[in-house]
Specification:
28 strands, single chain, eight-stranded antiparallel beta sheet, 434 residues, twelve-stranded mixed beta sheet
Length: 434
């Protein structure tokens, strides 16, 4: 069988069609330069593609999508180029098992299997059963090393990886497809409907959470208004290295996240929102104020950018779409602390809170209605720790704000998820308001 091979700069998910078609030679040039491009495999007489491959070496990424005859995606494979340039890790895959030709793409009732792999041999397989009974069944991946990796073919020598899925017994012959239209000059900005390499979680409107008057919304309430941040106290960081971590778990290797800051004493405050809701218990409209984030304020200069802080074991090359990194807690607790005095500060936290030693020097409970609950200090170094409550256990990202010059202006942990902005009363976007 002859399979047509076409190239493009992008793939439009909504239209299920290539965008900005290019020649094989131009695709080869983009491959050598590490720029993104798409390869589309088609069977003559079939409207839907057999598979689509997105290559972006600058992002250490190759993606593969497999389609059925109805044009539904049946398999999504995320491969990563790591330290060995000759092979790719099968990092993450999702397979959809449609129960019939009438089932819509990604129907909620469609069973699927997710395989999540890491280069150190870790991995798990999640089988999500839909419909009656439902639920998920999680096991180890059970894959050999040679099943976790794929040899990296040279440009133009990739096989049709979905050949077996489509029932092709003999190796197909490939034929270059004609370029239907001239490519637009330059890469330009691809529309939101175009496929792109996965991105980790993005920061969202963090500045606006500390700007009184800004209106936000979330999944619980259609409108909330940001009020003045509440100053809780200060934190001394004489070592110049801020720790952000969960003080309630094993820290033999030190804190999860560290952020360099100038040695000094910094303000701790909370972002707050006010909103009204109907209270069924009172059968009345109630107005309340909630805390949405805690912040260590390094500078009064507004952050020009926000970035997610990474731990020593976090490898951005492995992040899948919207993945977070951060500190872990199994006691619904996080903290800001001086990393230079981490061990004595955490030891005081454990002695005071967990062991309950009375009249412990260097430890105090905080009872002022804020999220901050415990304070410890090290007399030798002068470093301090302030522990705060989180909504539950899990992993919490740490957002670092930077000025235009790249200097740290603040460090924020969201405790109520990332809300969305609502327009100002006059229709002005909230991020444009002064």
């Amino acid at each position: 069988m002859v399979i047509g091979v076409g190239y493009a700069q992008a793939w439009d998910l909504e239209a299920c069609a290539p965008r900005r078609p290019i020649s094989a030679e131009e695709a080869r040039e983009r491959d050598a330069a590490g720029l993104p491009y798409v390869v589309v495999y088609r069977e003559p007489g079939r409207e839907a593609p057999l598979e689509v491959r997105l290559v972006s070496w600058r992002d250490h990424y190759v993606g593969l999508w497999v389609y059925d005859a109805q044009g539904r995606r049946t398999y999504d494979l995320d491969m990563r180029l790591l330290d060995d340039p000759s092979r790719l890790l099968r990092r993450y895959s999702v397979g959809w098992h449609y129960t019939g030709p009438e089932m819509a793409e990604f129907d909620k009732a469609c069973p699927r299997v997710i395989v999540d792999l890491f280069p150190d041999g870790r991995g798990r397989r999640t089988e999500e059963r839909q419909g009656q009974g439902g639920g998920s069944h999680i096991t180890s991946s059970g894959l050999r090393d040679d099943e976790r990796w794929i040899d990296r073919p040279a440009f133009g020598e990739w096989p049709l990886l979905s050949a077996q899925v489509h029932g092709l017994i003999e190796p197909p012959a490939f034929e270059a497809a004609e370029v239907a239209e001239a490519a637009e000059p330059g890469d330009g900005d691809a529309p939101a409907t175009c496929w792109r390499p996965p991105r980790p979680a993005q920061p969202g409107p963090i500045n606006e959470l500390f700007r009184p008057g800004v209106r936000v919304t979330d999944r619980y309430n259609p409108e909330k208004t940001v009020v003045e941040p509440r100053r809780v106290g200060t934190l001394r960081v004489p070592s110049g290295m801020l720790a952000v971590s969960g003080p309630d778990i094993d820290h033999g290797d030190g804190p999860h996240i560290t952020v360099p800051v100038p040695p000094g004493e910094y303000v701790l405050d909370e972002a707050r929102v006010r909103f009204s809701y109907h209270c069924e218990w009172r059968d009345a409209e109630v107005t309340t104020t909630e805390r949405t984030a805690v912040r260590l304020l390094v500078s009064e200069t507004p952050a020009a950018t926000w970035e997610m802080a990474l731990g020593p074991d976090d490898d951005p090359r492995l992040f899948i779409e919207n993945q977070i990194a951060g500190f872990a807690t199994d006691g619904a607790t996080g903290c800001f602390a001086d990393a230079g005095a981490w061990q004595p500060l955490v030891a005081l936290f454990e002695r005071g809170l967990i062991q309950g030693e009375p009249d412990l020097d260097g430890y105090e409970d905080i009872d002022d209605g804020s999220l901050f609950m415990q304070h410890t200090w090290d007399d030798v170094s002068g470093g301090e720790l302030m522990a705060f409550a989180t909504p539950g256990d899990g992993t919490y990202p740490v957002w670092v704000g930077r000025s235009e010059a790249g200097e740290v202006t603040g460090v924020v942990v969201l405790v109520d998820g990332m809300p969305k902005l609502l327009p100002e009363r006059d229709g002005t976007p909230a991020e444009a308001a002064v």
